[in-house]
Structures are given as structure tokens and as C-alpha cells.
Amino acid sequence: MSKSNFTIEEMDIKLKTNFIGTNFIFYDEIGSTNEELLNDKSITQHGTVLFADNQVKGRGRLNREWISYKDNSITFSILLTENLNSKTINLINLAAAISVAQSIENLFQLDLRLKWPNDVLIATRKVCGILVESISKGDKLERVVIGIGVNVNQPMFEGHYNVPPTSIRKEHGKVVSRERLLAEILNEFEKNLKKVNKSPNDILSNWKSKCKMIGEKIKVQDGEKEFFGIFEDIDENGFLLLKDLKGTKKIFSGDVSPR
Ligand code: BTN
What we know:
alpha+beta, 2 domains, BirA Bifunctional Protein, domain 2, globular, five-stranded antiparallel β-sheet, SH3 type barrels, binds biotin
């Protein structure tokens, strides 16, 4: 395998966090950063970030695969082990999506959109996917892992995707620094994570302001089931509220597409 072009020092200079990423674990190659952080119980530090230069068995939502490219993407996971509450997991999901969108906006002046539950888009093209997983013992949540994959410098994409992909480079027109982007995402995430507990309404309103599908006719595909209606809102826990002729239904998971 060729040597990584990712420089930890360059990322570190831009990192302004108190605990997110202060323990930073770098792998040249790994199956899945989420799987590693969920299962390696010797890693316990709250805020640990595990970054893989080459993730070869990336996991996506709904048992899909997440394909990434060495040198051109960033794939990493953040471990939370303190102040965990199962009620806020969905808000953490939204906070992660907001953090990625804000970071790309801050650095590259692009207009980002969010798609429920946690896709980050540029116009209708997906630039980032997020997968939050957790481990509990009895009722107690022990580990929450937030996995983030961003398409950074891919010049093009081949193959079939359920949402058409894009990269920051394709949209911005230039190769961008993965180190700077990662540091910015971690900086934003630490700020947004505080808000999950202290001012969750800020997370909800920020997320909603970036979701252009609210008020629109949508289809939700949840396995074999399909639901149609108007995307009315998200509730205080981040679940989708779908309005149809019979009333309002709460949607817990699925793929949303416009109708
Ligand atoms: C999705 O959109 O389906 C979610 C994709 C999540 C991908 C990231 S990449 C880092 C982390 N490790 C994984 O195996 N998956 C997540």
C-alpha cells in the first residue's frame, strides 16, 4: 500500500477542541472505523477519534456498504462514553450532519443541504454519509459511535448509488485539504454536541433551516414498506412527521425521496 498523504500534525494545528479528537488514532487501513470503535473496549476515552486512511469495509445505513477512496475521502468515527442518553442519540445524529454541513460552508462557501435522517448534500448530490451506532448493557448506553464519511477529492464516481454522489472537489473546483476539513468538522461537532444537551431546540432549528424538503411531498421507503405524504416536520427527538389524509405518522427510519 502506498504511503498516506494525510498529515496528523496539519490537522492538529487546526484542532481547537477540548475533548473531541484529543485522543486521535490513525490507521493506514481498516475494515470499518465504526466497527473498531464499537468493539475495541480497550479504547474508552470520551471523544476519541479513529481515522482510517483507507477504509475497506465501510458500513452504511440500512446495511448498505460505504465506498471510500484512499487519499480522496475522509472516513472516521468519534467515540462518546460520557453523559449518554438514548433519547438524544437522534439529536447527536442531526448535530453531526449540521457540523459537516457548516464546516464545508465555512471553508468552501458552498450551499449545503440536509436530508433526513442524516445525509449531507450539495444540491441533490450526496457529499457525506453518517452512521451512528451504539452498544448498551441492560438499559445503560455504554458507547455511542458517530461514523462520518466525506467525499473530498474524488474527481469522479463510477457505479450505482441510491443517491447520486459528489465530492467537495467536484463542486468547489479545486483539490482541498483533508486535514483542514477534518479539524473543522471536529471543532463544529464539539460545539454542536454541547447544544444537544443544553439547547436542543438550536439543533432542531438549525437542522430544519438546512432541510429543503420540509413542506414537500415525499416518499419514505422503509424496507418493503412505502409511505407517501407531506414532510410536515421533525419532532423534538428528530423523528420525521409525515402527514397524509389519515393524519400524522411518526417515521423512525427509512429513505426519503421527493415525489
Ligand atoms: C450512509 O450514508 O449510509 C452512512 C455512511 C457512513 C460511512 C461512515 S465512514 C466512517 C464510518 N465507518 C463506517 O464503517 N461507516 C461510517
